[in-house]
Amino acid sequence: MATELNSNPELKFPTGLGTSDADTISLLGQDLAADLMGKVGFGELAFWLVAGRRPNAGEVRLFEAVLVALADHGFTPTAIAARLTYLSAPDSLQGALAAGLLGGGSRFLGVTEDCGKFLAAALRDAEGDDFDEIARQAIAGANGRIPGLGHPVHKVQDPRTPVLIRIAKDEGLYGRHLRLFEAIGRVHGKNLPLNGAGVCGAALADLGFPVEMLRGFALLARAAGLLGQIAEEQRRPIANQIYLTVDRNAVYEP
Known about the structure:
Elements: H1 2-6, E1 18-20, E2 25-27, E3 30-31, H2 32-36, H3 42-51, H4 57-70, H5 77-88, H6 93-102, H7 111-124, H8 131-140, H9 160-170, H10 176-187, H11 196-206, H12 214-235, H13 239-248
Antiparallel strand pairs: 1-2, 2-3
Helix pairs in contact: 4-9, 4-11, 4-12, 5-6, 5-12, 5-13, 6-12, 7-8, 7-10, 7-11, 7-12, 8-10, 9-11, 10-11
């Protein structure tokens, strides 16, 4: 029955990504083995897969800088979740990795997408190129919460922010989203730094990615960081100590 369905000429499931036969694997219209392996970096390939076009060298540099910026940020809840899951199920590396990725939300990692969406919405309604004025209007309509403004650890400056902005300018990719985000930093009137994850969202939006995809890039980057956390947990385990610390200090209040 399956063979009959697969050979039905009226059934079509088009894709422009990958396919294979007995002798070759094709990806993005290229021969994977002959044209891509050893010739295309993973960052370039990830960009290409999502954008549907091959990036130039400057775009790859900025994109990979974003991935590096988002890969790891210490013992965040996502890292702790991955380590504790690995403690519970060391036979399930994928479970530990998934546990960490599932924690990517509005407080951790999700700010990349939230900031990109906020900036894109402000620019859709904007007229002209007075970014300070566009920023004031965006702030006025934000009901006090501006995604990507402030950081729980970096109270003065997120060290990722100036580097990402410099790379964007160096590569001629300093676009409207980054301009607006910097303007928000100038005019918001509060002593809050531009969150590096928010800058990543602005940079990705300036690279032309749909804002609905931006959290996916944060998760792609953090997957590498979580693998590093799990590898370190194998070498130098701490998850059991975390578990026992909570368990031994739990207070039962019926």
